[in-house]
Amino acid sequence: MSISSNEDRNGRGQVDMSLYPPFIRQLDAKLPDYTREGDIEYPFEEITGVGDENRIRGNWSNKSDYLLAVIGFTAGVGSFWKFPFLVFQNGGAAFLVPYLVMLCLAALPMFFMEMVLGQFSSSAAISVWKVVPLFKGIGFAQVTISGFFAVFFNIISAWTLFYLINSFSFSIPWSNCQNSWSGENCTLGTRIQCREMNGTLLVNGSCIVEHATSNETTVIPLHDLDSIPSLKYFHNDVLMLSKGVDDFGTLNWYLGLCVLVCWIAVFLCLFQGVKSSGKVVYISVIFPFIILTVLLTRLLTLDGSISAVLYFLTPKWTVLKDLHVWGEAAVQAFYSVSCCSGGLFTIASYSRFHNHLYKDICLVLIVDVIVSLIGCILTFSAIGFTCFEFAIALDKFHIRDGFHLVFVFLAEALAGVPVAPLYAGLFFIMILLVVHATQMFVVETIVSSLCDEYPERLRRNRRHVLTTVCALFICLSIPFCLSSGLYWMELLTQFVLTWPLVFIAFLECMAINWIYGVDNMLDNAKWIVGHWPPCYIFWKILFKFICPLVYLSILCFLWLDWNSIEYESYQFPYWSILAAWGIASLPLLLIPIIGIWQFCIAKGSITQKWWRVLYPDDAWGPALAIHRAEKFPLQIPEARRLLLPPEVEIASSQRDLQENIQMNGGGPLTGARSSEFGHQTDGKSIRSTDVKSVGATINTIPKFERETAI
Fold it and tell me: Which region ranges are annotated with the description Disordered (predicted)?
């Protein structure tokens, strides 16, 4: 790269000062314009090879590792236990209309924003808030919520592992009522029991059994789904469920061992950071798709499955007039991409700087929608088979979302399939891998965020940080293995892991789009990719005006739609609900506390303090010097020597110098600070102009140390 000028140096030409960092403008540099003639070779950073671009922090080994990691983190277990229930309850295929609209209005903007900022700064959830230091508490809140998610997903993994181990038998335990935990009212399907007793099945679902010896006729009524063996197994054997949230009961040691095994698996997968987790995703993300295809193919061949899929996917367009349906669609769309928990910041931060993220975002969202639709078809085919076995009409069948859908209903449906242990084992392997992929990057978010925020102390000891985090979460997970664990999991699901994320989304949207500036954020995206996203004006309107209103609407919907919590026939006591609200508010309290702390430690007057906490930190920007040099080449010493020949003059006026003094704290320049600007202030007045040659006094430009990573 060399300097050239198309205009005369005597002031006739306009210099593009955007190519130079702010301190050059403060020094009133008389610089000619220049044109790029090639890239500067930086011997200290090699970004064209096959190794890591960021050699201190590391990168994904290749693009496929990164894409599978994002898909594994976003396409979670909610596609199997929440989305099918919403489609079932809210008009079948018609629910896809509000869902896709809200996916574009609520999920896509936040997904885009977090991916851009994470990749641009190569920083995880806490350090990325150098962009607006006043809101650094959002990063700590996201890490805290990730801790709750880590415990939550670990318990789900432990339950799944427990089911998987017990699937390895010739007769899976929840397929019959001949067990110690079955109870007296445990019953199989009406059709199954009627067939075993050589009875006649009626249209209303009842069964008539004629006894030839006594000439008596017995009528077996339609059975309640609350008495099926899979529900008894889940409550009495897996959970050892107590009578209430305050009845802690006993510890299920088998479940505790499953918790320990799942945490050891997470530790081993993250031992080498993204290098090891990037290889694990080839199993934890690709293999579930293979299993899902096998299960879907098998279930669609069972009796009643095709008719159920067609029945439940039939659109009921009248639901589009119901605002409650739109609210449910907005909530599900927002949660479906796993935003605002810090995971997207972390995953994107390990990408190469010029990775084309526009295509990645579109691909991930399309895959997420496809997985949700496949989960619907899988669930509806299982409903059809279950209704056939229990002789229940499709319009009279009701399901529940959450744990009940996966561990009770789908487990019961697979128990009736021929070669049930095989398909049940495949199903729980799929659920285990899906949950493990999400949990793995939730823990990586916590570890990377701490190491990025305190690099001097923690980055070299990353494995110690990982060990400490896993050990801490093992201790926090064990209490959920008590008999009351399910009730506390319900409280986490209803309170802690729901509305706080939407509240964070609103604050994050306001901080980035209104304080940092939506134009700056889109410019960052252009710096990464090379061009702005299509429909630039649409993105500006969406980020600045539509998104805040959407997030406030979702938040109001969640608060106004709140009802008393119950599980089965158990009503949660009022004190437990207050405790859940308190736990949910705990991460959000960190936002004002840390914001006040950031303001207090900022230097300068009150005005300067506000300036420092509302404007990006000096360290904000690309992590690598070679990428910073693309926009601000004079920040790099090697680039300065090439760009500024000795004949270029810098005129420093007294006014500019005094402004520089005020920006750096308001005191006089003495000692080393005065020598940086080439001035002497020992009792002598500063000359109005002091013209120096850059070649003779190159130190007149403040020094910017070259870094390979911030």
Answer: 662-686
